[in-house]
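Worked example 3 (structure in, sequence out).
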């Protein structure tokens, strides 16, 4: 009898330990799509928010995708993940955006053959204006919003403008995939693991104008940290093939796989959100598309631009004081120009959307 009682107590204690935190509400949009399919298990198994953080997972997609979404919901149930206290699948924004702690906006209108970038911006302005308004109306004011759907920077800016009661610093867009790609290319070239490379930077737009910069990056070789330029001694590769490989990696994946990046995109989303939640490691910075207001790098205000940031207490700060050479300046200005033009086009549609 005593043994049974002890067993029950132990089980109760274990249960209380797992659920010592209140559940957080996490939304993933485009939840029937392939990026979400690679992402949802990692969120549910504790890889992103920690092994003792229960989660209410909210899945949003468009009405025609609800049948597929039901299949995703069944699979999540069948994973029997102890941290998932509830999974809600919906096509209604008022349900999806209610009381959110985190919103991961993956769904967007993809670019179709023959579609001009302007057409793409117009379709997405409509989506992200509506989702921004829903965040403003239903979500917590402390919600962290991560935009993945392309064109990610301008979609993120659109959502932020449409949610005036939520601090614009709470909005960020994903350039971590490009950051990870840059790390991986350096690691491959030097025959080390990606973990041995740190402080690469993606400046600007998540597009082919982005600038992957390794002037401030470090690599661990034989237990000693050295600058990447010093380690590689290959200026022409770093300014040429390296830059274009990272800029065009997404297109290369589509060409090879006949589908866009999903596994690597999901991993990058996990990295991005985990760093927002737990902070960046001491001595390391990461790339993130954030509002450019008050930056010291000559990037115009009111753009959603990728910078090097450090994060502490769920708050990001620009990494200040990095010297910028002429080559970098030119590349940074070029991608800022593209973002300014995108913003102007999007805002024409925003007023009429």
């Amino acid at each position: 009898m005593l043994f049974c009682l002890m067993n029950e107590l132990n089980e109760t204690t274990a249960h209380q330990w797992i659920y010592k935190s209140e559940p957080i509400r996490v939304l993933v949009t485009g939840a029937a799509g392939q990026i979400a399919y690679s992402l949802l298990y990692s969120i549910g198994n504790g890889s992103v928010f920690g092994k003792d953080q229960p989660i209410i997972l909210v899945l949003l997609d468009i009405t025609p995708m609800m049948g597929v979404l039901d299949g995703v919901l069944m699979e999540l149930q069948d994973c029997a993940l102890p941290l998932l206290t509830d999974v809600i699948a919906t096509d209604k924004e008022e349900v999806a955006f209610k009381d959110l702690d985190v919103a991961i906006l993956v769904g967007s209108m993809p670019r179709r053959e023959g579609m001009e970038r302007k057409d793409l911006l117009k379709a997405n302005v409509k989506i992200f204006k509506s989702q921004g308004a829903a965040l403003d109306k239903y979500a917590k004011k402390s919600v962290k919003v991560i935009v993945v759907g392309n064109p990610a920077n301008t979609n993120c800016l659109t959502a932020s403008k449409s949610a005036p009661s939520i601090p614009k610093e709470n909005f960020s867009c994903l350039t971590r995939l490009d950051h990870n790609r840059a790390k991986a290319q350096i690691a491959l070239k030097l025959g080390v693991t990606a973990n041995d490379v740190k402080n690469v930077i993606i400046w600007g737009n998540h597009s082919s104008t982005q600038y992957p910069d390794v002037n401030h990056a470090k690599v661990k070789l034989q237990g000693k940290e050295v600058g990447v330029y010093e380690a590689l001694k290959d200026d022409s590769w770093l300014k040429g093939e390296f830059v274009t490989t990272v800029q065009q990696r997404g297109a290369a994946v589509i060409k090879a796989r006949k589908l866009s990046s999903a596994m690597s995109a999901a991993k990058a989303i996990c990295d991005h959100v985990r760093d927002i939640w737990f902070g960046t490691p001491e001595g390391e910075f990461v790339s993130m598309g954030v509002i450019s207001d008050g930056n010291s790098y000559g990037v115009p205000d009111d753009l959603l631009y990728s910078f090097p940031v450090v994060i502490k207490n769920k708050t990001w700060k620009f990494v200040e004081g990095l010297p910028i050479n002429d080559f970098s300046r030119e590349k940074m200005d070029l991608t800022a120009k593209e973002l300014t033009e995108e913003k102007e086009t999007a805002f024409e549609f925003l007023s009429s959307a």
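Notes: The CA atoms of residues 128 and 159 lie 5 Å apart. The first helix runs from residue 2 to 18.
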